[in-house]
Amino acid sequence: MTYPTTTRRHFQFSLLALPWTFAISSAGAHGEQHGQPNAPVVKEQKPWGIAGEPRQASRTVQIRMTDDMKLSPNHLEVREGETLRLRAINQGRLMHEIVIGTTDELKAHAEMMKKHPGMEHDEPYMAHVPPGRRGDIVWTFNRAGDFEFACLIAGHFEAGMRGTIRVKPKV
Fold first, then answer.
1. What percent of the chain shows pLDDT beyond 90?
2. What is residue 54's predicted lDDT score, i.e. its pLDDT?
3. How many angstroms separate the CA atoms of 54 and 83, rounded?
4. How far is CA 48 from CA 19, 99, 131, 147, in A?
5. Taking Cα atoms as reference points, which of 63, 81, 68 lies closest to residue 163?
6. How far is residue 87's CA from residue 35's CA, in Å, rounded to a whole number?
7. Which has the closest alpha carbon to 135: 116, 147, 151?
8. CATH classification of 50-168 is 2.60.200.40, yes or no?
9. What phi and psi values does residue 45 have, to the nearest 5 degrees?
10. Distance (Å, rounded) from C-alpha 23 to C-alpha 132?
11. What CA–CA distance (Å, rounded) separates 42 from 85?
12. Which residues contact 3 (CB under 8 A, 6 or more apart)?
């Protein structure tokens, strides 16, 4: 069967454009832009604080993540208004993540992760960390209270892969 020249050109162009279409459509997928230093940080006030500026971090806290479902340290003390760099270091062979939030929000998110186990995150209070890699969260804890951090990958939260953050009020 022979097609008119314009149809053949359109078909050839479509085949050439197909890989670009997939690349462009997948670039905006949930989690694809996480960890890119040039990606703009959305600063949305949460009950546990707001995204911080890296240059304002007063200290870096390394949180080790292991396949025995432990986070170390599993308790942090922070002053209200302090900006921290939380450096999540995955020392295991499994994918891990760290997410900051309230107890109720983390429980709800952990349930959602059970239903969508491959979901990655791109919020500034989350870091999805492949084995042997690290991920940073820079966060300003501008609200006093008790909060948590956890790995919400299906089964990890339930296995106890979580910690607490106490934000002490300004004196």
1. 65
2. 96
3. 8
4. 41, 11, 27, 7
5. 63
6. 12
7. 151
8. no
9. -65, 130
10. 26
11. 16
12. 11
Model confidence over 4-50: pLDDT tens digits?
Answer: 544 444 434 334 443 333 333 333 322 333 344 556 677 999 999 99
> Buried b vs exposed e over 97-122: b needs ≥16 C-beta within 10 Å?
bbbbbeeebbbebbeebeeeeebbbb
Q: Which residue has the tokens 């004196």?
A: 171
The partner residues of 127 in beta bridges, in order of sequence, read 98
Nearest to 98 by CA among 23, 4, 31, 163: 163
Residue keyed to tokens 């492949």: 130
Q: Tokens for 128?
A: 């999805």
- Please enumerate in sequence order all residues whose Cβ is within 8 A of that of 24, keeping only pairs 6 or more positions apart, or say none: none
Angular region, 81: left φ>0, alpha ψ -120 to 50, beta rest: left
Q: How far apart are CA 109 and CA 112, in angstroms?
A: 5
